[in-house]
Design brief:
This protein has one domain (4-199, 213-218). Helix content is 19%, strand content 37%. It has helices spanning 22-32, 110-124, 180-194; strands spanning 4-5, 40-45, 54-64, 67-83, 88-100, 129-141, 153-164, 166-168, 174-178. α1 (22-32) runs parallel beside α3 (180-194) and α2 runs antiparallel to α3. The N and C termini lie close together (8 Å). This is DUF3000 domain-containing protein.
């Protein structure tokens, strides 16, 4: 992944097109101004088409000692006309996945724990959101033939979407633009947690993270 560590570079998006709403440009600007942990490599990527009139996408990876421990994609959607299912004009969509030690996948509570990391990350950053939904999937792989020397691997995947609520202005009135910087920071917190990194780069009591497979096949 060719990206700079700790910040988001400019890239392909719909933010500068003719007639692009100001609120969408401001929301994208919020994503582009976030400083992140040095383990996170983050870059803009072409957004999917036809999901919304305006969209912006980024991809990220957690890399430690040249090993990729987790990766994901976050997409910002905007429909000025609003969307009944969203309950507003903005929507965030994400896909996050990482490889785990096989024994971790046997935990029957693993999906619930991973989902709580997403909601917990948003709540820890105190960002308002609504209409959250998604799935947590775990899958194991065993290798045969020419790949038989590889150890079995287990992969966890989180697919989710939620509606970021507009931020409040100084007088308490809605500005119409969600705090996308805080949502991105929360999403990166989730990415680091599923990668097995301690919060803030230092261990904290009571924090549980997933031990990660660090073999060569975990790199993209």
């Amino acid at each position: 992944m060719a990206a700079a560590q700790g910040h988001l570079s400019d890239g392909p998006d719909d933010a500068d097109g003719e007639g692009t709403p100001s609120v969408f440009r401001q929301a994208v600007a919020g994503l582009q101004g976030v400083r992140l942990r040095p383990e996170i490599e983050l870059d803009a990527t072409p957004p999917p088409q036809r999901l919304a009139p305006y969209s912006y996408a980024l991809e990220a990876a957690v890399v430690v000692d040249d090993q990729e421990l987790a990766d994901g994609r976050l997409i910002l959607l905007h429909d000025p006309a609003g969307h009944d299912a969203w309950g507003g004009t903005f929507r965030l969509v994400t896909l996050v996945h990482a490889e785990l030690e096989p024994e971790m996948a046997a935990d029957p509570l693993l999906p619930e724990v991973c989902w709580s990391w997403l909601t917990g990350a948003l709540e820890a950053r105190r960002v308002p959101y609504a209409a959250i939904s998604g799935t947590v999937t775990r899958a194991g792989s065993h290798y045969f033939g020419g790949l038989r020397e590889r150890e079995p691997s287990t992969r966890i995947e989180i697919r989710a979407s939620w509606s970021p609520a507009p931020a409040k202005g100084p007088a308490g009135a809605e500005r119409g633009v969600p705090d996308t910087a805080a949502h991105l920071s929360a999403w990166c917190d989730l990415l680091c947690q599923i990668a097995g990194l301690p919060p803030g780069g230092a261990p904290e009591a009571g924090i549980v993270t997933l031990p990660q497979r660090r073999g060569p096949h975990s790199s993209r």
